[in-house]
Automatic annotation (TrEMBL):
This is Nitroreductase family protein. PANTHER family: FATTY ACID REPRESSION MUTANT PROTEIN 2-RELATED. GO terms for biological process: cellular response to oxidative stress. Keywords: Cytoplasm, Oxidoreductase.
């Protein structure tokens, strides 16, 4: 059965070949990202997810911070390869940084002590939901993206550069831009191994 939401989910793929042209204005992309995060669910409607949207030179500055951090931990002989990869993310039109506000998590733990152990887990799950919402919305608008995890390497430098609250914990980075290559092949495991249906 055709379903527009499932069609959008199918459209979302990892795109590493990013370019700088966008089919929408920056304002429209910003509104898309904000709406996608805003309308994603969170435990107790705690709205713990935060996003920093970086365009152009700001996005390049973020990937420079990542490079600076990686230079300290990657052996010199492997750095050229690492740099090439980071440059492919920087080649996009922008980057979305996904954060979770740990002050929200802490206050929930204090307020609902019975669930204290669950709130950090639910915060991670909420972040994943927000990430999927944004990624799918971008794909639906014809914008390519991938999901990266260089945290915690650039966290302190990024917090200082964009004056972010100390309670914001970086969870993922999503470079986005024009789709400059077809998507790769994707295989799927058997439904029979994955799902059990009882009626
Ligand atoms: C929780 C999670 C973490 C991921 N981390 C990375 C990552 O660090 N780097 C990366 O290139 N892709 C990452 N991916 C993307 C997956 O590799 C990708 O979604 C998967 O191979 C399926 O391909 P598709 O996105 O084209 O459907 C991650 C995806 C998920 C859901």
């Amino acid at each position: 059965m055709a379903n527009p939401h499932i069609d959008s989910l199918k459209q979302r793929r990892t795109q590493y070949a990013l370019g700088k042209s966008l089919p929408l204005s920056q304002e429209a992309v910003t509104a898309l990202v904000q709406d996608a995060v805003k309308h994603s669910p969170s435990s107790f409607n705690s709205q713990s997810s935060r996003a920093v949207i970086l365009y152009g030179a700001q996005s390049l500055a973020f990937w420079d911070l990542v490079k600076d951090a990686l230079r300290k931990v990657v052996p010199a002989e492997n750095f050229a390869q690492t740099e090439q990869k980071i440059d492919s993310f920087a080649a996009g039109a922008g980057t979305i940084l996904f954060y979770e506000d740990q002050d929200v998590v802490k206050s929930l733990q204090e307020k609902f002590a019975l669930y204290a152990d669950n709130f950090p887990v639910w915060s991670e799950q909420a972040s994943g939901m927000a990430q999927l919402s944004v990624w799918t919305a971008l794909a639906n608008a014809g914008i390519g993206a991938s999901l990266q995890h260089y945290n915690p390497l650039p966290d302190a430098a990024a917090a200082a550069k964009w004056d972010l609250p100390a309670s914001w914990k970086l969870r993922a980075q999503m470079p986005f831009g024009s789709n400059e290559a077809p998507f790769g092949e994707k295989s799927f495991m058997d439904d029979a191994e994955r799902f059990r249906v009882f009626s």
